[in-house]
Amino acid sequence: MSLGALLIITSLFSKPAIAASASIDALLPNTRDQGSSGDCYAQTASDLETVYLEHAHKIKDKTEFVSPLATAVCSKKDSLKADLSDAKVEHELTLSKDKMDVYLQRLNQLASELKQSSLSESSLKSKQNEFSQLCKWTSPGSLHDCRVSHGLSDALPGESDASESIIAGGDISNAIQNSVQNCGVCLEKDFNSAQDIEFLTRTEQALDNYAHPDEDGTSSSCASPQFPLDKKGEKTLNTAFKNLLKGKLSDHPAFAVMKKKCKRKNSLSQEISRNTLNKDLSQMNASDASGQISTLLKKGLPVGIAYNGQIFQNSNPVDRTANHASTVIGQETRNNELYFVVRNSWGESACTQKKAALKVPQFDCDNQGNFIVKASDLMAVTTQATWISEDQK
After folding, report:
1. pTM as predicted
2. What is the 3-state secondary structure (H, E, C) of 102-149?
């Protein structure tokens, strides 16, 4: 009997075995809903960092995992500061009717000019940028609403919607790089995201409330939300929020806590940054992409993937438009086909709920809330893989 035939027979009579999943799972907290951080990319990034720290023996207590909320906030520090700056401008405009009238007049003038077809490319781009910024400062709704109200029904090239979340989306690798550079490594005990505290939603509410104060110039009661931190940390954070609404916008309130509690920077941050690697899978066929992921899993390395999350939300074929991120933590062989174990960020019950909702479920679930899906199907909708290697020098 040939070796190939023997291998086929062996695979048919053997039980599916998860490779790496059990060992990787043991290093990670229970599957959580991304509501605690608002960002699936940050959840995935914190998974990769946690396993790396365990493997590199930098953190020996397995309950000390990297905080996804801290990763989310730190990875978008620059954009948060920009939103704080915009809120300050809006606040001043709201309190100054004369200044607001000037900007509204300019907005109307720009709308008329943008309707002309004779503008040069550079002039068009400049006016588009100014129009978008003025919309943010003067209009309570989205950029789309502002555009429509000024008779510009079509999207302007290069514009982004002002209603976009301050911390939505992002590349896994960027989430890792930016977070460790801005804050270092923040553990869950440093910055608690175990509960769904809707931190970012409350931040946006606070910013909006500051930008558009009541008619008497005061702000509403969302100035001091309560967060599940320790007593000292909670007091510090609430004080920072009060300062935020008073116009002290030099930093995001979360950093008042993280600056005091997240001390693992410098060499460790540089090490993680240096060892974070990426692979573009967008032009790779599903079989080759699966092989790349499988090789990393056999080394005990979890792999973050950017992919089209619709694969777990409907039974129709989907393309490689990346709108979600998750961590591949293991693999199985079923009926001589490779399957990946995917740690998602929708909570422990999400897998069974999604499977029950689909008429033709194309994935399975384990008792940890992980999605088990055929590797070729998953790779057909995956654009990028990210992992943290211990081999880089």
Report:
1. 0.71
2. HHHHHHHHHHHHHCCCCCCHHHHHHHHHHHHHHHHHHCCCCHHHHHHH
